[in-house]
Structures are given as structure tokens and as C-alpha cells.
């Protein structure tokens, strides 16, 4: 997305067809920039704002023109990717596997069974994301959508103290949202488009992405509905990464195939919906002597590889 330098991204009134009244409706719906307008489906904008569909189509087209968003050359895309940042996971080996850390403009998924360390990585990222850029951070605040009740502030205090940081200041910059069911989780994700720019959010974590969907949609007869709802939320998170140049980290569970006699019987839940939506997929399993093994199982830019870390 190549941005017209003459236009401020947060000045909706500069978009043709957007006056103060329409801009107010957009902002109330969490649509705060031209980028968000462009990456959000027009029908969704119409539903959230109550503005006529044809009017929304014209505004979306005007927003695209204001951002010079049409076809772009590979060189232009390469320049856009230079704005990508990396956030350290706190592990040198894991950072190396990820090409320097968790990348912005991407959804990174950590997959693994219970107790393998997915949440511990997320809690560490809550701290490291607040570090300045030169220390491997993103110099901003964090949103943690907790779907399983796994966020433990005591662990944040331990991690922050080990890094020589003020743990209470670190905790004050983490915005925790406890998701009690899949509908509530969807509502929280919808709210991120308004909350992130208002609160200097530089990292969004959803732990876990599929837990509520898996428990609420039981049986094959509900599979299609579940996958459609899950797909909708995953693509909103993808749009969030593009609109605000931030990373989204999600965790995923595994399911075992009892018919597997050789090798690892576990595979990620969520099927192709999860597989296609995540930019980078990292499979975690327990190693020897308290270590963990991380394996890149899918990524457009990272080679399939694995590493051992603590």
C-alpha cells in the first residue's frame, strides 16, 4: 500500500465524499484511517456505520485513490516491506528462526499441545514489545485477548524484573480483555480497529484463537458455521496488521489422530481456515531437559527449519 504523502492518514475529511457527519460515524465504528477503509469490506462498513452501501462504495474508491492504491510494482512492495519491524521473543534461538523476531504486517501463529510454552512466549512478548526499537521492541503498548484465563500478571512481573524494567509500568501498558465466549471474542476483535490507534497499541495477542469456537460449535453439522465465523475474525486480524503496521500473535491448539502409529499424532486445529490465514506458523513441542523445540511449518518468507530454546 503506497500512501500519498500529502494526506494525513487519520484525516478522514480529506477523503472525497467524507464530511464531518460521515467522519464521525466512521470513527464511532472504529474506522479511523483511510487504510482501514480500504482493507475493510464495504458491506461491513455499511453495516457498522449505517451509511448506504452505494455511498460506502464511492468512499472506498476515493480512499483508494487518495492512497494511490491500485496495482504496484514489486519494487514498491519491497519499499513498503522496509517499514516492517521485528519484536524479540526474548530467545535468541527463536528470534533467529523467525528471521529476527515477530514481524509486523503479519499474523504469527504458535501451535502446540497444553503446557508446551505458547502462553509463556506471549507473556514475554507483552514485555519485550514495550522496549525501544534499538532493544528489539516496538516501543508501544500491548493488547492481550485472553480466551482461556491464562494471563498471569505475576509472570509479567518476573519477566520485567529480569530485564531491569519497572514491572508495574509494564503491567500498566498491557490492556487485557477476557473473552468469555466466541461472540465476545469477535466483539473485542472488532473493537481493535478503534482501540489500537487511540492507545498506541503495537502488538495484539489472542490466546487462544480457536478455544471458544472449538468448544461451542460441536459436531459436523456446525463445522461450516464455525469455520465461517473463525475465517471472518482471522481476516479482520490480518487487516489490522496491514492498517496499523503491527504484529498479531495467535495461539492454536492441536488435535490427535488416534490412527497415527508412527511420528507425531498431533496436528493444528482449525483446518485450512487457520492454515491459510496465518502468515507464519510455528509448531512447538517439548524437548529434553526442559527445552522446547520450535519448527516453522508454513511461511511465505521463512525457510522450513527448527530450533531448540528455553
Outline the secondary-structure elements.
Layout: H1 20-28, H2 34-39, H3 42-49, H4 53-66, H5 74-81, E1 86-87, H6 92-97, E2 102-103, E3 107-111, H7 118-128, E4 141-146, H8 153-162, H9 167-172, E5 174-178, H10 182-198, E6 201-207, H11 211-216, H12 223-244, E7 248-252, E8 254-256, E9 266-268, H13 271-277, E10 280-286, E11 292-298, E12 306-309
Parallel strand pairs: 3-7, 3-10, 4-5, 4-6, 6-7
Antiparallel strand pairs: 1-2, 8-9, 10-11, 11-12
Helix pairs in contact: 3-4, 7-8, 10-12
Report on the architecture of this protein.
- The model is unreliable at 1-9 (pLDDT under 50).
- α7 (118-128) crosses α8 (153-162).
- The strands form 3 sheets. The chain has an 8-stranded mixed beta sheet, sandwiched between helices. It has a two-stranded antiparallel sheet with strand order 1-2. A two-stranded antiparallel sheet has the order 8-9.
- The chain contains 13 helices and 12 strands.
- Helix content is 42%, strand content 18%.
- The longest helix is centred in the last third of the chain and has 22 residues, at 223-244.
- The chain has helices spanning 20-28, 34-39, 42-49, 53-66, 74-81, 92-97, 118-128, 153-162, 167-172, 182-198, 211-216, 223-244, 271-277; strands at residues 86-87, 102-103, 107-111, 141-146, 174-178, 201-207, 248-252, 254-256, 266-268, 280-286, 292-298, 306-309.
- The protein starts with 19 loop residues before the first helix and ends with a strand.
- A hairpin with a 5-residue loop joins β10 (280-286) and β11.
